[in-house]
Write a structure and sequence with these properties.
Helix content: 25-40%
Structural class: alpha/beta
Shape: globular
Distance between the termini: 49 Å
Strand content: 15-25%
Largest sheet: 4 strands, mixed
Number of helices: 5
Number of strands: 4
Length: 106
């Protein structure tokens, strides 16, 4: 089987630090594209199972203007992820961390 016909898929989940997110996101996208990745997801973690829109909303925690390097990238909007100028599909992901069984009921 040639390397061209054997495509592999990976699920990258990239947490970003609270400060310097735009710079970190741009560096990650460029480096991962060089390594051959075509889709990456930046994530926000919510602990305890209880979601609060003011705290956990995607536009609050992972705004597109911090994840995508240019205005052209922001315009390539779709219902599920956006493609940047490098050709990489960028997604936003919410990870809900259940620490106690009682959190499931909330």
């Amino acid at each position: 089987m040639s390397s061209q016909s054997s495509q592999q898929y990976f699920d990258l989940n990239i947490p970003l630090p609270p400060s310097g997110r735009k710079h970190q996101a741009q560096m990650c996208q460029a480096r991962l594209r060089q390594l051959g990745y075509h889709g990456i997801a930046f994530c926000h973690n919510s602990f305890g199972g209880r979601l609060i829109p003011e705290r956990d909303g995607a536009d609050k925690t992972l705004p597109w203007d911090q994840l995508l390097p240019s205005e052209a990238d922001k315009e390539s909007e779709s219902n599920f992820g956006r493609q940047n100028s490098l050709g990489t599909k960028v997604y936003r992901r919410l990870n809900i961390v259940i620490e106690e069984m009682s959190d499931v009921c909330q």
